[in-house]
Design brief:
Blueprint: H1 2-15, H2 34-45, E1 51-53, E2 64-69, H3 74-81, E3 97-103, E4 106-113, E5 119-120, E6 126-128, E7 133-136, E8 146-148
Length: about 150
């Protein structure tokens, strides 16, 4: 009996993420996808100033991408994405970056990056498919932090 309770508690702990108290099933995003893998590859290669069209990392339809750093309030994320992903009073947590792809204001893919893949953002949080070009902006040699061209 004690062993089965201990295993259950261990499984709950292992499936609970680093941000807030959400379980894996409650999170509206993935921790890994083809998008994060391709961007990680690019961030390792560089050189400084090299560019990458985000559409080359996707195999799904989308017309806009939204990028948020850890600590962004749920209300801001919901406003930019056009639908509720988080409670307004919650925060997207930790040292993570959240990338949300939408197609006609409907979320089609969301992935969270964590170090060593670093993403820096400016005041602009949303980019059309045509605008979604990232570049390696830290000094040579890499790995490089990435940023959207504006």
């Amino acid at each position: 009996m004690f062993r089965s309770v201990a295993i259950t508690v261990l499984m709950v702990v292992l499936t609970t993420g680093c941000d807030n108290s959400m379980t894996t099933q409650e999170r509206p995003y993935l921790f890994s996808s083809e998008v994060s893998e391709k961007l990680s590859e690019f961030s390792k290669q560089g050189p400084r100033g090299a560019t990458y069209r985000l559409e080359n990392a996707t195999t799904f339809n989308w017309d806009e991408v939204h990028v948020f750093l850890g600590g962004t309030p749920g209300k801001i994320i919901n406003q930019h994405v056009g639908q509720k992903m988080f409670d307004d009073n919650d925060y997207f947590g930790g040292r993570f970056t959240l990338m949300v792809f939408t197609d006609h204001d409907k979320v089609v893919h969301a992935v969270s990056f964590r170090p060593p893949l670093f993403f820096d953002i400016s005041e602009k949080l949303s980019f059309s498919r045509e605008e979604a070009i990232v570049f390696a902006h830290s000094d040579d040699p890499g790995p490089y932090s990435l940023m959207f061209k504006e």
